[in-house]
Amino acid sequence: xAGVTQTPKFQVLKTGQSMTLQCAQDMNHNSMYWYRQxxxxxxxxxxxxxxxxxxxxxxxxxxxNVSRLNKRExxxxxxxxxxxxxxxxxxxxxxxxxxxxxxxxxxxxLTVT
Amino acid sequence: xxxxxxxxxxxxxxxxDNSIINCAYSNSASDYFIWYKQESxxxxxxxIDIRSNMDKRQGQRVTVxxxxxxxxxxxxxxxxxxxxxAVYFCAEEETSGSRLTFGExxxxxxxx
Lengths: 113, 112
What we know:
The structure holds 2 protein chains of 2 kinds. By secondary structure, chain A is mainly beta. Chain A contains no helices and 11 strands. In chain A, the strands form 2 sheets. In chain A, strands 2, 4, 5, 6, 9, 10 and 11 form a 7-stranded mixed sheet that branches. A 4-stranded antiparallel sheet of chain A has the order 1-3-8-7, with no helix packed on it.
């Protein structure tokens, strides 16, 4: 099992450029999540998908869109990148809802200049 | 809004000592709590969890204590090792919730 994988590992964008962060899990998990982590801070939820076919906003959704492509894959898109979106992005998944631990990917380090 | 926070942003201990990392939460509806460890440059890794119907749970070298009266959570690490050096996060979730709320994290440094 690879667990949760994320691509790319690193990315530098110019302000206004767009990009999609990819996430996949091979654990047959139902729920998937996107977080951002700024230096010295905790994780803030951007969007989540409780099950295939559903997506919901988290704490900081502005400037992002998501797609739950299938049960395995959950992508995060930045349509017009801004310097404030410079951060480390983590994808996570878990089998069920409340009470199940989340498994995290290795992260994507994004810099917007 | 509801939040989860930590008392100590940094903790430095000697190798072999026991470590205690604290966490306060404010959402009285939270009934599931979890601790994660994050090493530099990596994603968070699950350590241990506890439900609100328990006040203590033990794992390998780790113990989580939950005090619902004062909304306090702690993680105890026995015989701390250099490999335990990392940032530790607590997180909480409501019964009806579908997502975790994370605290800010505590940096644990273990000195040899």
